[in-house]
TrEMBL record:
Sequence similarity: Belongs to the binding-protein-dependent transport system permease family.
Organism of provenance: Pseudonocardia zijingensis
Keywords: Membrane, Transmembrane, Transmembrane helix, Transport
Subcellular localization(s) per the UniProt record: Cell membrane; Membrane
Parts of the chain that traverse the membrane: 34-54, 61-86, 98-123, 144-168, 201-225
Protein name per the record: ABC transporter permease
Length: 230
């Protein structure tokens, strides 16, 4: 119990003391996680919409693959991305390994199947005749799709929040491709793991609580933006 109490006190102290290292770790965590979520959304939303609204061979296979990808082990993703970005790997010349960019790439791979599967599920719940009705009223294809997105905005926002939650709490891939380098690629999850390995349980709990507060703040903003009325 003393360890938990120390962790809570430590988290508050880290937040309100203006500790530069903690704020740098928190900001990097936010930047990497939001970047990965944005990339996943840019790829996953159109792909999920295509799967939900299209009629083409292999559609169900793609949906099954996306659903399976929601359980993709982060360590496996980290291993594959590390091999690709290794100096002797096919993308080694880019020099991205052990950088925040590599972390964004790995986490985007983790988050994209989540977005695809949830967007497809959300759009499949909308009345199949919705697009036809909108176009019958004179709306263009693009405007009809925008209206469809507005109709399913809450499930779509939920897909984004689920993707963000998957990456902001991820540690395996982040540690493998980022290296947990102080001042460069250390995020809240990897910092908590390091503190635990050193027996600094209070500090690890503090980092965990800061991570929870960060996730709550981002989801609160998204929820308030997506809700109408009180």
């Amino acid at each position: 119990m003393d360890v938990l109490l120390d962790g809570v006190v430590g988290a508050l102290a880290l937040l309100f003391s203006g500790d530069e290292e903690t704020w740098a770790i928190t900001l990097l965590t936010l930047r990497v996680s939001l970047g990965a979520t944005l990339v996943a959304a840019l790829i996953g939303v159109p792909l999920g919409a295509t799967i939900a609204l299209g009629a083409f061979p292999g559609r169900r296979l793609l949906l099954a693959a996306a659903n399976t990808g929601m359980g993709l082990p982060p360590v496996v993703v980290g291993l594959v991305v590390t091999v690709l970005l290794w100096r002797s790997g096919p993308l080694g010349e880019l020099g991205l390994l052990y950088t925040p960019t590599a972390m964004v790439v790995a986490q985007a791979v983790i988050a994209t199947p989540v977005v695809v599967a949830l967007v497809a599920a959300a759009l499949q719940q909308v009345d199949p005749e919705f697009l036809v009705q909108m176009q019958g009223l004179g709306a263009s294809r693009l405007r009809a799709l925008a209206a469809l997105g507005a109709e399913a905005r809450l499930p779509l926002l939920a897909a984004g929040m689920a993707a963000f939650g998957a990456v902001v709490s991820e540690v395996g891939a982040a540690q493998m491709v980022g290296g947990n380098i102080a001042g460069q690629t250390r995020v809240l999850t990897t910092a908590a793991v390091l503190a635990t390995s050193r027996g600094q349980f209070g500090l690890a709990i503090a980092f965990g609580l800061v991570l929870l507060l960060l996730a709550f703040a981002v989801n609160l903003v998204v929820t308030l933006a997506g809700q109408r009325g009180p």
